[in-house]
Amino acid sequence: MRILVIEDERDLLTTLAQALEEEGYAVDTAENGEEGLYKAESWDYDAIVLDVMLPKLDGFSLLKKLRARKRTPVLMLTARDTRQDRVLGLDIGADDYVVKPFDLLELFARLRALIRRAQGEAQAKIVVEDVQIDTAARTVHRGKEEITLTAREYALLEFLALRRGKVVTRTMLYEHLFNEDDSTLSNLLDVHVSNIRKKLGSEFITTRRGHGYCIE
Amino acid sequence: MFFNSIRWRLQLWHGALLVLVLVGFGFTAYHLAEKNVLNRVDEELRRRTGLLGNILRPPGRGPGGPQGRDPNRPGGPGPGDRPFRPNRPPEEEGANPDYPPDDGRGPGLGEPRLPVEATGLFAGEFTNFYYVVWGRERIPISQSSNLPPNIDLPSKPETDSMIARTRGNFREMIHYPRVGPVILSGRSIEMDMRNLHQLGFFLGGAGLIVLALGLTGGWWMATRVIKPIDDISNAARAIADGNLGQRINVVDTENELGRLATVLNSTFGRLESSFARQTRFTADASHELRTPLSVILSQTQLSLSRVRSAEEYQATLESCQRAGQRMRVLIEKLLQLARIDSGLELQRVTVNLADICSDSIDLVRPLAAEKQVSLTSSFSPTLVLGDPVQISQVVMNLLANAIYYNNAGGIVVLTTSSEENFSVISVKDTGPGIEPEDLKHIFERFYRVDKSRHSQINHTGLGLAIVTGIVEAHGGTIGVQSEVGKGSTFTVKIPSIPPNS
């Protein structure tokens, strides 16, 4: 899952980016509205965390411009907690609204819910045959047995599981699992996929030659 | 409670005034009518008395006798216009023989003989007239048959006079000639009095109707007058209840209440905008405090979520310290603004602005060197009455801004000078200048021209608001001129001490 954080307070931005990375997300950052809008329009993020008070282009204007082109889930993050601000934010297309100071765990939970719902999944648990993926706890069970995955492996699994039955291209996977700073080695994906197959069974992820991967 | 209501008080005064006027008018009208009636009756009686006197005495006999033949005498045609034959009326038979009849032969001798014309005046159609004639020794010598009982002769005054009196329902006119018989004629005024009383009742009734109409009209008028006051009080109550957008509906702006309502509306407007400003300020302040607070909370939460390396903990602590310092600076400035808002307590001493500016410029030299900005100054001594600490804060703040928002290699020029009545501090920079759009808001709280400097510790967006507050507390003004690409000049003017004092 790849997330864009747009926040002008640098300390807060690095904290958020680090925290989200530790949660297994690929994170891009932007320190002002213009840069944020450019990135938001250039990539298909799974979610955007957007501050309202931004230099160059404020959060509301950014959201308005973005909504003309994209449906990326947006979580507004702001110190402005008046009702008018919240209503305005939600009305112009924000999917959620979190007021500063916020709790990181709550922020994560809201982001998970946003990403899940964007894929049409209402539940936090995804069951594929005997494999259960708990997107809230970020755990994977096969039967009763818990399977240990690396953060990246888990992200890959969750990404495919949320798009169950659909073929996911390698490009899409690259775009959603790595952030802009990751040096993307071409065979990295194959390594992750083969590791997941070792842990969950070789048939769990099928390869469509020339197309991509899929969880049936 | 009624008397606390203006409407009731107005009504009461109005009613009292109306009653007073009506009673005065009614009383006067009644009195005039009564006087009129009595005058008329008196005139009739006087004519008859005079006539009787003429009949009883030969013409020209007494100087005080009423001259019945006098053409100037009012009273209509009297029987004296033609000669008369004195006849003795039947009722005068056996009258006082001491009193001589007026037969033209001699004065004061024999029985009085009244002519028919005279007695006719008191009989027939004039039945309510009566008369009596007293001779010497106050003995009645002649009287009419319809004379009411218990008539007494009042004591005689010294001179020839005609006296009118009211006795019960009778009005009487008594003529005391200097010599000769005393003549009284009178009539019942019962009918006249009854008519007069009817007039009184009518006046009373009409007065009551007018009073009722007047009170109704007064009530209506008071209601109309009170209506705008009620509107004002309703609007004021709504505002007191928190509905600050409420205004008085002013229909007529020209009258006194309309003007009052207009004044109140503009007051309410200023109140509302002041509240709105306060609300926005509070929202801004909480926003400014929340951002560093979020840094502290999320940093610590993240750090504590798992075991970290010493470097990571150090980075977290440094970040928290920055946030904490930012909050401290912000809180200090907020407190300073609050002090300014509640009336800054200023030390008032004679201060030379040149000294303050020269001290300040030394303090900012390190910052200028760091930013590669050169400082130039030109000070002419100018004295003001003020607080040196606060004024130096103004200068420092403006200087810091001028250096901070300057280009590398730029110049900052600080000057002091004297203008008519004012001491002037001017801070000129060669920075990028300020857009006209920003220039309008530059002295507003939390307004930042360069929003990307948001997270800088010492840039709270309150500096110029504080500077403005201090300058205004000194009775001065602050202004700015700016040209995009060329730079800005901030000018502070503080009332100066006249050189001769």
Query: Any idea what the radius of gyration of chain A is?
Result: 18 Å
Largest interface by Cβ-Cβ < 8 Å: A-B, 28 and 26 residues
Chain-averaged pLDDT of chain B: 80
Multimerization state: heterodimer
Strand order of the largest sheet of chain B: 2-1-5-4-3
Helical amount of chain A:
40-55%
The CATH class of the largest domain in chain A is Alpha Beta
Overall, the morphology of chain A is globular
Low-confidence stretches of chain B: 60-111
User: What's the count of strands of chain A?
Assistant: 12
Spatial ordering of strands, largest sheet of chain A: 2-1-3-4-5
> Helical content of chain B, roughly?
40-55%
- The total strand number of chain B stands at 12
Give the integer mean of the pLDDT values of chain A: 87
Shape of chain B: rod-shaped
| Number of helical segments with 4 or more residues of chain A | 8
Q: What string gives the helices and strands of chain B in order? A: HHEEEEEHHHEHHEEHEEHHEE
CATH architecture of the largest domain in chain A: 3-Layer(aba) Sandwich
CATH fold call of the largest domain in chain A: Rossmann fold
Structural class, judged by helices and strands of chain A? alpha/beta
Query: What low-confidence regions of chain A span 5 or more consecutive residues with pLDDT below 50?
Result: none
Description:
With 216 residues, chain A is an alpha/beta fold. Chain A has helices at residues 10-22, 33-42, 59-67, 83-91, 104-118, 151-162, 170-177, 188-200; strands at 2-6, 26-30, 47-51, 74-78, 96-99, 125-128, 131-134, 139-142, 145-147, 168-169, 206-208, 212-214. In chain A, the strands form three sheets. A five-stranded parallel sheet of chain A has the order 2-1-3-4-5, sandwiched between helices. The longest helix of chain A is centred in the middle third of the chain and has 15 residues, at 104-118. Chain A starts with a strand and ends with a strand. The model of chain A has no long low-confidence stretch (mean pLDDT 87). In chain B, a hairpin with a 2-residue loop joins strand 3 and strand 4 (170-176). Chain B has a five-stranded antiparallel sheet with strand order 2-1-5-4-3, covered by helices on one side. Chain B has a five-stranded mixed sheet with strand order 7-9-10-12-11. In chain B, strands 6-8 form a two-stranded antiparallel sheet. Helix content of chain B is 47%, strand content 16%. The model of chain B is unreliable at 60-111 (pLDDT under 50). Chain B has ten helices and twelve strands. With 501 residues, chain B is an alpha+beta fold. Chain B has helices at 6-56, 116-120, 190-240, 256-304, 310-341, 353-363, 365-370, 388-404, 436-439, 463-473; strands at residues 129-134, 140-143, 161-167, 170-176, 182-188, 349-352, 374-379, 383-386, 411-419, 422-429, 477-483, 487-495.
